Structure formats: C-alpha cells, structure tokens
C-alpha cells in the first residue's frame, strides 16, 4: 500500500488546531490550573541538581551513578571551615574563587540572614553557580583588576584557590582580596601542602612558613591546621571501599562510619604528614 510522505489537508488542519490550543493564551490558562500548579510544585522541588545528567550510556555501557574520589576530603575540609565560621558571629562573607558555589550554598544553609557573595574570574563557573544556587549572589570578576560595588565584608574565604594563582601575581592577589575585607575581619583559607605532588593545574603548593610569609604583611595569623593525613594504606583501602570496578558504596550507615573514621583519625595531623593546610587569620 502506497503511503504519502507529505501531510494531508486534514493533518495540516489538525496541526493548526493543536497549535491554537498551545497558543500563549492557552498556556497561561494551563499554567494557572490547580492541577498544573500541584504537578509543577513537585517538579520544581526536584530542580536542585541536574539529575537527568546522571544516567549515561557511553560506548554502550550503562551507568546511573556519579563518583568523585576526592569528595570525602573536600567535604571534610568544607565542614572544618563551617565549624570555624560558627566560632565567631559575622554578618557578611565573600567567597573568593567560589567556583560552582558549593561552599556559599553550605554557608547559607548553616548561617541564615547573612550577606553572602561568591566571586570567580571564570564565567563558566559563575554560570554554573547561579544555575545551582539561583537564590544566592555571584559575580564574575578579576579581583586584581575589577572593583566591587559593595561594602567591605567581615569574612573572606578561599578554598583551594591560591594554588591556582601564578607565583608572580600571588602577592597582588592577596592584596586584592584583603581590600574586600573590614579591618579585624577573618580570613579562612585552605591550600595543598608541599608534601603533595604538584599537578599541572596548580602553580605552587605551600608549607606553613611560605604561607605565613605571604600573608603576614596584611594579616595576623591566628591558627594553622594541618589536614588530610598521608596514609597510603588507609587511603587505598578507603577508596576501594567507597568505589571499585564492582560497586559504588551507597549504604548510609557504612558511608557515615567511613566518614567518621576519616575525620577522627586521618584528618588533623602533623605538618610532616599532611596533604593540606587550613589557615585562620585576621586582617590588620
């Protein structure tokens, strides 16, 4: 039986009728209906993470999980920063080198009613931060060249940022973020230690002496915490338990147990054993 590849007159009429139904007026009526409002409220609540991007079928291999091997280490360092923030009241905070905005999201969750701002030179990072956190403020600026049109902040945070700054410009970078801050305000930062191998994406790593020398012209150093103990055996076992070629651990009780063991036994350590530094300072 012959089939015509072109639409018939009746099909064209039907399409035109459907187009009229979905005209702007029709959409407005639909959006205002109680049924749509109930459905949409449920759907909107799920738009906190792009979950449609989790499942994949790359080269015919099915997966429905995401795993970041550094996630436990990052989360523990971020929790340390939140604990330090809780020690002293503050009203305003700027996160320099905010990336995708995760720290600012957690600060907003734990400390409500604060004036918060995230800044980064990467427009791609800022676009992602805004998409993931539409209720928070982010600006794409080069802090060494651009001025903020905002009052000075009580707290400046930098998580894993200084190592990305070229050595010849790091002094200018420190002066730039210090200009955002009130006198007597706190600086909280984390950096990789020199004990850790320098990857191509980092310009330098630090030890306590070089970090203090860099900051002391502008800041009084209050505390240095050496974090992420180097333990090859435990680290290998930990990551094998969390994820391997056979499974990704998802049991909440076991995940909580591994996190508690890491935080209590393998997070804080001596400088000779650490992979990172957390520093707390106060602007002069």
Largest sheet composition: 7 strands, mixed
Task: Count up the domains.
Answer: 2
- Cα radius of gyration in angstroms: 25 Å
Total DSSP E strands = 9
The low-confidence runs, each spanning 5 or more residues with pLDDT under 50, are 1-26
Distance between the termini: 87 Å
Shape: globular
Can you tell me about this structure?
By secondary structure, this protein is an alpha/beta fold. The chain has two domains: 7-42, no CATH class; 71-231 and 266-283, Vaccinia Virus protein VP39 (Rossmann fold), CATH 3.40.50. It is built from ten helices and nine strands. The protein has helices at residues 9-21, 24-32, 34-44, 71-85, 102-110, 123-132, 170-178, 208-215, 232-242, 252-265; strands spanning 56-58, 61-63, 92-96, 115-120, 138-140, 153-159, 181-192, 219-229, 274-283. The chain has a seven-stranded mixed beta sheet, sandwiched between helices. The protein has a two-stranded antiparallel ribbon with strand order 1-2. Strand 3 (92-96), helix 5 (102-110) and strand 4 (115-120) form a beta-alpha-beta unit. The longest helix has 15 residues, at 71-85. The chain starts with 8 loop residues before the first helix and ends with a strand. The model is unreliable at 1-26 (pLDDT under 50).
What would a concise description of this structure say?
The chain is of the alpha/beta class and 284 residues long. Helices cover 38% and strands 21% of the residues.
Could you list some keywords that capture this structure?
284 residues; alpha/beta; Rossmann fold; 2 domains; disordered N terminus
């Amino acid at each position: 039986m012959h089939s015509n590849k072109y639409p018939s007159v009746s099909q064209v009429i039907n399409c035109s009728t459907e187009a009229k139904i979905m005209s702007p007026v029709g959409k407005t009526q639909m959006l205002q209906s109680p049924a749509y409002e109930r459905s949409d409220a449920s759907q909107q609540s799920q738009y906190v993470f792009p979950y449609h991007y989790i499942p994949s079928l790359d080269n015919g291999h099915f997966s429905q999980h995401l795993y970041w091997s550094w996630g436990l280490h990052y989360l523990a360092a971020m929790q340390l920063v939140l604990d330090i923030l809780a020690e002293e009241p503050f009203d305003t905070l700027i996160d320099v080198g905010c990336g995708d905005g995760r720290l600012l999201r957690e600060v907003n969750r734990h400390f409500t009613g604060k004036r918060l701002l995230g800044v980064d030179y990467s427009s791609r990072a800022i676009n992602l931060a805004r998409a993931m956190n539409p209720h928070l403020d982010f600006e794409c600026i080069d802090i060494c060249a651009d001025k903020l049109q905002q009052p000075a902040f009580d707290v400046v945070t930098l998580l894993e940022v200084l190592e990305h700054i070229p050595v010849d410009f790091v002094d200018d970078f420190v002066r730039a973020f210090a200009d955002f801050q009130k006198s007597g305000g706190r600086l909280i930062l984390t950096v990789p230690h020199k004990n850790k191998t320098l990857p191509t994406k980092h310009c330098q790593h630090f030890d306590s002496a070089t970090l203090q020398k860099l900051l002391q012209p502008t800041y009084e150093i209050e505390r240095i915490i050496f974090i992420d103990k180097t333990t090859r055996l435990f680290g290998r076992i930990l990551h094998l338990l969390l994820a391997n070629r056979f499974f990704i651990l998802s049991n909440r009780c076991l995940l909580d147990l591994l996190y508690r063991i890491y935080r209590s036994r393998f997070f804080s350590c001596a400088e000779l054993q650490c992979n990172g530094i957390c520093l707390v300072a106060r602007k002069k």
